[in-house]
Write a structure and sequence with these properties.
The complex is a heterodimer. By secondary structure, chain A is mainly alpha-helical. Chain A is about 45% helix and about 5% strand. A two-stranded antiparallel sheet of chain A has the order 1-2. Chain A has a two-stranded antiparallel ribbon with strand order 3-4. In chain A, α1 runs parallel beside α8. Chain B is built from eleven helices and seven strands. In chain B, the strands form two sheets. Chain B has a five-stranded mixed β-sheet. Chain B has a two-stranded antiparallel sheet with strand order 6-7. Chain B starts with a strand and ends with a helix. The chains are: A mainly alpha, B alpha+beta. At the A-B interface, α3 and α6 of A face α2, α3, α5, α8 and α9 of B.
């Protein structure tokens, strides 16, 4: 594409320069604040390595618990060969996967490029950068790994669904367990529903399930799976924020139960 | 009758300044009506491009209070008239005069996109058969009126002037309309990655926000094209599978 004869006369605007008269700075500020708060809380919660389970409940930050001290651990306590100078927590083995899924998510990319990198801070607002390479070169070219994090996120949905089932069984006076539903069970259920709505509305899933074909009706299962994912995809931003808030709240709720600050009310 | 204070950019080829005009307006008037009133009563030499006055020709694109919009579709009662209203030309294109810019780079960009190449007709009478589900997806893209507001708001073009490396949202919508068409046999993914710079889009969705036809540009056109580029160039599994399943170009018409 040759455009040598066309040159733009207007210079690049300075950082923050715009003739917009609305509160354009509010949205990136809120996004930066909420994302920062979540990152700080989730990092703190992951570093604790304790108070992540209560009865049948397991915090989603620690699920699945591969090594650990609770009854949910697949392979028992943390291995003895782990060097003592490296801090350990069951969450370290888990959080990189859902974290990577959100970090490379198309919606979050657009949001945090605005909020943290001012690229741009908002539409028609001047940028601080002179040079721009977008997602064509390192490191942002790595965002193209998103679909692999999607595969992991889909597996995690299965584990979190199993956690809801475990959250329906409460220890009895003996060594057995009885069926029941507590507030925590509902918290875990809402968590998996919101995460499911977010994950199943993913742009990469929409592509893989039919969007990659010029004739979506010829995809496996016909056009219906594509339509369902597209339906969720239209609410992707909403699901992204709701699921982010709720997964943090779920950890907080179970942590408070485990520390004895909250009481889990039994509904059934 | 109310009075609006208008700050309108006057000048030629990038040189100029805002000039203040006061103009009466009535409920129901759009910004283009006010511009025309000023043109008729105060500034006969004010240059503004317009045509249909119905939001369908895409001629009267400009920036109102710093936001790219169609002059003919922006009602005065939707703007705060207590403060001066700024009206200026689009910033992503070379300035010509007053509110008029040179948008010809868009037509050159469009020519660089491989044209529609349909498969052989399905019936002896030269006609094709398509599922409604398959053709629905590209119908949205055909609503584009080529107002180039999306090109104007895109920071890659507006701030960095990378017109040589990035075709912009409008032409990615055009490419999507061709590339996802159920009859099309052309493969444009290599062009998208190399010449058309789809990787320069960082998904800020500004193009979607300003589209007067409410085309979901980023989610329905650009991201699906980015995913096709991932299939072709970055995903080792799909690259491996392509050994057994050729792409569109290799399949032929």
């Amino acid at each position: 594409m040759s455009q040598a004869e066309t040159r733009i006369a207007l210079p690049q605007r300075h950082f923050g320069e715009t003739r917009r008269k609305d509160a354009w700075w509010l949205q990136p500020l809120v996004v930066a604040g909420v994302l920062s708060a979540f990152i700080v809380y989730s990092t703190w919660a992951a570093l604790q390595g304790a108070h992540y389970s209560f009865a049948g409940y397991l915090s989603p930050f620690y699920s699945p618990e591969i090594f650990g001290n609770s009854d949910h651990a697949w392979f028992g306590p943390w291995p003895l060969w782990w060097p003592s100078w490296i801090p350990y927590s069951p969450a370290f083995l888990i959080l990189w996967a859902p974290g990577g899924f959100r970090f490379t998510c198309y919606y979050y990319r657009g949001a945090y490029y605005k909020a943290f990198w001012a690229s741009p801070s908002n539409c028609t607002v001047g940028k601080p950068h002179k040079k721009y390479t977008g997602e064509r070169s390192f490191p942002l070219i790595l965002q193209n790994i998103h679909r692999y994090f999607l595969y992991l996120a889909l597996i995690f949905l299965v584990f979190l669904s199993i956690d809801v089932y475990h959250g329906m069984w409460f220890p009895t006076a003996g060594s057995g367990a009885e069926f029941g539903i507590g507030v925590g069970t509902l918290v875990l259920l809402v968590n998996v529903l919101l995460l499911g709505s977010y994950t199943l509305g993913c742009h990469s899933l929409r592509h893989l399930i039919g969007g990659r074909k010029d004739c979506v009706s010829k995809a496996v299962g016909g056009a219906m799976p594509y339509k369902c994912v597209s339906c969720l995809n239209r609410k992707h931003m909403l699901c992204a924020w709701l699921s982010l808030f709720w997964v943090g709240f779920t950890d907080f709720y179970i942590r408070m139960l485990s520390m004895g600050y909250f009481t889990d009310w039994r509904i059934l | 009758m109310a009075i609006a204070k208008m700050h309108i950019w006057r000048g030629e080829t990038g040189e100029g300044s805002f000039q203040e005009y006061e103009c009466e307006f009535t409920p129901g008037m759009v910004v283009l009506d006010v511009i025309h009133t000023i043109q008729a009563e105060q500034a006969a030499d004010l240059a503004v491009r317009w045509n249909c006055k119905a939001g369908k020709c895409g001629s009267c694109s400009a920036e109102i209070n710093g936001v790219p919009r169609l002059l003919c579709m922006t009602r005065m009662d939707s703007i705060n008239t207590d403060q001066p209203i700024t009206v200026e030309p689009m910033q992503a294109f070379p300035h010509m005069r007053d509110l008029v810019t040179d948008v010809s780079s868009n037509f050159r960009a469009k020519k660089s996109i491989r044209p529609f190449k349909p498969r052989k007709p399905d019936a002896p009478d030269g006609t094709w058969r398509m599922q409604q589900d398959d053709v629905n997806r590209v119908q949205e893209f055909r609503k584009c009126i080529e107002c180039f507001l999306c090109q104007d708001v895109c920071h890659v073009l507006r701030e960095h002037h990378q017109h040589d490396e990035f075709v912009g949202p409008r032409h990615l919508v055009y490419t999507a309309a061709l590339e996802m068409h159920p009859l099309d046999t052309e493969d444009r993914t290599a062009d998208l990655k190399n010449e058309h710079g789809v990787g320069l889009c960082n998904i800020t969705k500004c193009c979607t926000k300003v589209c007067p036809e409410h085309i979901t540009i980023t989610d329905n056109a650009i991201i699906p094209l980015k995913e096709r580029v991932v299939d072709e160039f970055y995903d080792p599994v799909t690259r491996l599978l392509r050994i057994f399943r050729p792409n569109k170009n290799q399949q032929g018409a």
